[in-house]
Amino acid sequence: MKKIINIFMAVVVLGSYWLSAPTLSFAASSQSAALQESNFIAFSELGITDELLLGPISDFQVVFGIPSSWTLTPAGSVLLNIEVASTLTGVQDSPTAGADDEFTGATMEVSFNDVSLGVIALKKGLQTLALDIPAAALISPRIDERHELLLIFNAEVDCIYPQETTVLVRATSGFELPHSVGSPSLDLNKLPRSIYQQDSIHPEPLVIVVPDQPTPHEIQAGLTVAAGFGRLTLGNQSLLMRPLSGLTEVERASSHLIFVGKSGSLPVLESVNFPATISGSSIAFDGLDASDGVVQMAVSPWNTALSVIYVGGENDDAVVKSALALGTGQLRAGLRPDFTVIRQVSSAVEIPSVDTDRTLESLGYESLEVSGIGFQSLEYNFYIPFGQVAGQDSYFDLVYTHSALMDFLGSGLIVSLNDQIIGSLRVTEESARGINTARIPIPAYAAHPGFNTLKIETEFIPLNICSELNRDGLWLNVHNTSLLHIPLMSAPVTTINPTRDLSQYPALFNLDPTLGNLAFVVPANDPQSWNIAAQLASFLGQNATGSILNPAVTFGDSIPDEIRQARDLIIVGRATQLPILTDLGDSLPAPFKDGSDLADESGMLVSYLIPEGTSIGYLQLLPAPWDVNRTILAVMGSTPAGLDWSGNALITPDLIRLLRGTFAVVTDTEIRTADTNVGLGTQNLSATAVPGDYETVDAQTQDVPVTDGYQRNELLIAISVVSLLTVLFLVFLILQSRRKKSD
Description:
- This protein is of the alpha+beta class.
- Helices cover 19% and strands 32% of the residues.
- The chain contains 14 helices and 41 strands.
- The strands form ten sheets. A seven-stranded mixed beta sheet has the order 34-33-35-38-37-39-40.
- Helix 1 runs antiparallel to helix 14 and helix 3 packs parallel to helix 8.
């Protein structure tokens, strides 16, 4: 009896959880939290887990960024929650033989931005260490302006006494960073810096705002901006697209805002203190033509720590022109850094000139040295203009010298470019005798347009772990005569196998480095579809190498002939909102019946009737009926939730890896696929993805209607199941009670 009750209670609890579990949506998962007010930042918030440091020598590095509106102020500190252990390996008169809080003989040196905060004598056991950060340490020495904490653990005492000392640095450690909040830098030349900071402790979200009744050109401009920020931030910038009336108070107060559209379509711009004030459809700037685009920047009137950018003009052509310029991230501002007029895109974009051969010295670096036992690293940044890519014969000539006091069998270095290993070297007795040059080929795939990071990581193993020479005697010097040889070529237009498969996404739509092969098709009045298209544009922009980004947009009631002939299509929305689907007809792997957002999977050997209102996402890939050389990807949903799921499947790497075939059904984070080129299978994917006792119907009698009484949703299913179990359990108890009385 007790077992039955326990089972029943478990079922009820699970059912209750099902009923109360939050529903994840595409929009909600894309929104970043508002800025936190606490000054304390734990390591765990930076994605850092507990770190174990082993004696006799170890080090640990933490690098992070801060919002551009922050200015760190004195009185900050580093708080370290650590656990020190020292294990005896023999003799009992070691210094560690006493109480847990006695000195172990080991120390830890802590530095912040290359300024020493002190050397700590480590005691056994759990302890919290607080070290003040002086004003001199608040200025970052790094080119990327990030801040750096370095811990150097020294347990050379282990070489004197038979003991092993370790330090566990807890992820609850962190930084107390008092700061003043000012206004962000209003410099269009430095975008995306004022909005995006690499490894920021407080990432700031971005919302792209379009008019409530936008034209296709205004939506196109918004997607171009999204693609540009996706490329400039390697997809790390959280962004949404909203119509003006859909912008919430929370989003307005906690996000950077980019308003995209004609000046007369965004009346809220009159409340922003732009360099060129906006009143109605008028932009107050002498000599501005109607066809001129405008990009200008101001402090947000809703939060002075955030920025507002306007991308637009007086007509659609001006709006698109402005977006093309901003999307490059290489704007050429005029007399002031927060305002520019776009007369022609080519003249408004600063295309930097770079030499084929660049030494580290020409990049602004001195000769740098790493020393000591264990892992050390050096980083160098260089730039490749958008629209160009590295040639096949690129290489890095590393010029270096190093110590002869290391174990040559275990010591060496690794060279990586943008976190991809491109070479490695062993240090030898011979290379220790002079200056060396090692040529490391740079594969074309490792370098990308924009800023690149070259990293040299070393590991030094001493001949004698207990030698006093290990701190300064193990070293490697990278000379600034080291040379990057990167011949540049125009970003090529690529081709792909004509046999289309969802596994080829996103490469199918990155064939043109400018995204000029791509057009989005969205409903005219569905902000959800616009937002999903913006997320897809941002994702595809990550790998777009063109000098400009130029995806097109058209509404779903008709597709202009020039877009049909010249572009591949990504259609986003629900079937009932997209009349253009009638042009596709039975060409879709799973077509839609008139008036329904549920796909008709009648090609199955066994099919099931799925009730209207069931949430399902669909991804369908096909050649265009009007041109087999053009590709169409339909990103559809039977409900808003289903549409969110299908969009999320195309921007989440773990889900993208699951895509196969030409037809996929998506439910939350699950994907089921089929290839209509070889047959759909034995039963429809939707019934498998959304389990239920559906009525089996022969494929030839698929037109059987679904009655109103049969319609339901997942919430009603859950309520019904729990209610039925409750009734059955009560009946069981009554029968048991009667049986006992009869006995």
